[in-house]
Structure formats: structure tokens, C-alpha cells
Amino acid sequence: MKAIQATNISKVFQFKIHKGLKGFLQPQTKDIVAVDNISLSVEAGESVAFIGPNGAGKSTTIKMLTGILQPTNGEILVLGKRPLQERRELAMQIGTVFGQRSQLVFNLPLTDSFELTASMYQVPKIESAKRIKTLVQQFGLDEFISQPVRKLSLGQRMRAEVANALIHNPKIIFLDEPTIGLDIVAKRALREVIKDVNRTQGTTVFLTSHDVGDIEEICNRTMIINHGTVVLDAQTDQLKKDYLKTKTVAVVPAGDLPRQVEVAGVKAKPEAGRLIFAVDTARIELKTFIPKLFEQMEVADITIEDMPLEDIIHELYTKAAPEVDYDD
Hints:
Layout (H helix, E strand, L loop, with lengths): L3 E14 L2 H6 L2 E15 L4 E5 L6 H8 L7 E6 L8 H5 L2 E5 L11 H11 L4 H14 L15 H12 L6 E5 L7 H18 L2 E5 L3 H7 L2 E6 L2 E7 H8 L2 E8 L8 E2 L2 E2 L1 E3 L2 E7 L5 H11 L2 E8 L2 H12 L8
Parallel strand pairs: 3-7, 3-8, 5-6, 6-7
Antiparallel strand pairs: 1-2, 1-4, 8-9, 10-14, 10-15, 11-12, 13-14
């Protein structure tokens, strides 16, 4: 059984437009297509990034997958259940975390929130006690487990939010911007525990995020949605490989930094004591460029980096954007 199977789903919102007195009495309607005939399939145990720009249809799709919204057309099965019709049964098998919406009780100790969640999901007390103890250790919550939620830092709270969503041992966890607002250290810690849950427990992870680091470090597969349609569905590593056309070669010369340098037709840009070459590997391969570089100058240090995944995604967004009729 697949974790998620959505076939040709669409969501159209209808808005009333009031123009003048006549429009107030007889308003016109306008259809807004939020999701346009999407099909997607997620295997149990996968870790999937579902990403796109604001207004692309991500949140609407997740709301349909979790039974909050009914699709206008199409069929959805999550863990073999219809999300809207079997919402109560499905809720017992999924977990959700929304970066801006806490599910913890603000003024109570963290332990009370965990116990309340376990009670809501009808987890037996003996089992919930073991489960909470395991999650506290796994997520590193020992130091502040007895503190009121209001006293936790954002990074501590987000780790607690994910742990809280896992108390009833869901088969799927939906994460919406889980690292938003966190510093680098807190992001790294949260990403590690999410990966660990996916790897050790086989929990399916369905994540939306604007943070490229979340996608690269947590998800094996990336689905890109734009203007209500899926524009790419690929393994995250393959995504970088297929769309990686530029390598950044940063060079620290052994001598003084020259003002103007050109190697194999690629001009360098001086930056912070280094020469930065943007090498289009479709035009010249690195195995050709690097020897020519060493022929022209003595090098003290050199680094070669891939194009950031964020740039790749931006390029895909741009290509997928349809023409807009501004007179409409």
C-alpha cells in the first residue's frame, strides 16, 4: 500500500465579485485554480520535498491530503483512506507540524503537552510513557522537558513540536516550514532528528520548505509545483546532476591578485582576495578548464562548488511560469 496516492486532483476556489449596486445584488463569480490536475505517488518510508513559490498550490494540496479541504476533482488515498470521508481514522495515523502554528500548550510544562497529545490519540499510558521517554532522548529535550513551553527558544520548541507530532507513532508526518526562523545550529539539529526518524522508524516524511538546506539534507526526492501543476519530480541528487550547468571555481593565487584574468574564455571576478570563475560545464569541462588555469597562474588554494539547489529551483520556476494576461 502506498503512503500517498493522488490522481488528477484539482481545487478551484470560487469568489464573488461585487461591482456597484448591480454587482452587489447580482454578484459575478470568478474561479481561481489553486491546484490543476495534479497526480502524485509517495511510497511508504520515502522522504519527499514538495516545494514551490508562494501561491504555487503547496498548502492547498497538503490540506486536501490531510482532509481539511475537499478536492474539486480527482481522487486521493492516504494510507489507503479517503482523507475527507475518513478524516478521523486518518488523523490517528498521521502527524502534522506547521512552523507558525504551535500544537503545544503555551503555559504548561512540555511534559503536560506530550501527555495531553498521547491522551488525545488514545495511546495507552504505559505505551505513551515509553514513547515520550524515547522521543525526549532522541530529540535531546531532557534539559527543558519540565519547563513551560513559553520559556523555550524557537529551536527548542520546534524540536518539541516534531516530537509531539510523533507521540502516536504516525506512519506519515507532514512538515510545513519546520525550520523557519531557526539559526544554523538549531536547523542542523532538527534536520538530523527528522532524518533519524525517517531512517530508523520508516516514517514517511512529506515536507514543504523554502529553505534549500531542508530539501538537500532531509529529502531523497523533490517534487516542484508551480502555478498549480507539478513541473518536476526527481531524486534530489539527480535534480542537481541534471540541472547543474555551472560550477563555481574559487582560486587564491600564490602571488598578488590580478585585476583581469581570463581562462579558456571564462573571465574571473575578483572577490575577497579570490578569483571567482563561473564555468559552464556544457561549454567547457572542468578536466579541460583546470589544467588551463594552472598553466596561466600559480595557485595557492582552489575550491570547486556546485550551483546552489536554490538557483536550480529558481530556474525551473522561471521556465514553468506561463505568460500572464495583465488585461484580464
